[in-house]
Amino acid sequence: MLELGCGVGGNLLPMAFQYPDSEFIGVDLSSVTIERGRRNIATLGLSNIKLLHCDIMNVDASFGQFDYIIAHGVYSWVPPAVREKMMTIFKQNLAPHGVCYVSYNAHPFSHLRDMVRDMMRYHTRRLTTMKEKVGQARAILKFLSDGSKANSVHGAVMRDQYHRVLKAPDELLFHDDLDESAEAFLLHEVVEDAGRHGLQYLSDADFSRRYLAGYSEEVRTTLQRFPESEFMARDQYQDFIDGNGFRRTLLCHDSISLRRQIDLDFVTRFYLLSTTSPVDPDACVTDGSAMEFEHQDGSRVTVTKPLLKAAHLCLGRAWPRALSFGELLDGARALLDGRRAYDDHQVLREAMFILACSGEVTFLISPPFS
Q: In angstroms, how far apart are the furthest CA atoms of the chain?
């Protein structure tokens, strides 16, 4: 794996630790962050990762090819010439069946974000330190938000943006909102740029964005009409509906033939992970009564089938470990005193498919913390 703009290695180090037989290379223009990252590598005793003090513009074919190339929080914050170079690297250094991840600020939401960015950057234009800029950015936005009319569209936007800025970590606010050069893009603009370099759109990195069950029937029906050949266009219209403001885009070589249909069996090939826990720990698992489960993000799901109630309990008790589909099935049956039904496999498979597609259950190619 190659990461462009790796910083201290916050993305790469955990993966290097988790996958000792893989190789990781990160490049960054800051010698300070690279040195900090190298100290962390030495402390962990990792031999499969290198962090290089290197300009992205100097990455060339001699770096070799990589199964994965990632660029998180870079594309929107560099000049056009560097973005062009990044696309060249994605094509030049990506293995034939490799996957590239690139994240960036996205429209339409960024139009609203840019409105308050202009206000904050004007107010902090003569300040020099991060602490001063961040503090005054929040202060001026509070003043402007409080001063706007609450019953107006502008007032509603200002209040929403103020709450976003208030919750943002200092480093994120400084990097994302107060950087003069930050630029947002529509999905199709980035994909078309990638296309000019011999790359194609694979999907969003958030698998659950494919899942349309949360939309109205009219929206769902319309989006489902898009053929596979217009998958990117469907995602672009979905961004318009959601007001999406940050994109995590996956690219691959345009010579690859993609099959986007996903069968139910896919969940049986992965390790499954969930933070689910019962709202009422004393609820009965073995009968058909309703049992409610809550996830770490606060979302809830109600389950009535004993097998699925037991499966949710197994996932929650195993967390942060992940379970193979077979382990989950065996564990659920054990909680039901070994009771078995001929359709257990099918019932669990269908339920986990829906939960994986909706993002309630995470699926992994290998178990974490193994």
A: 71
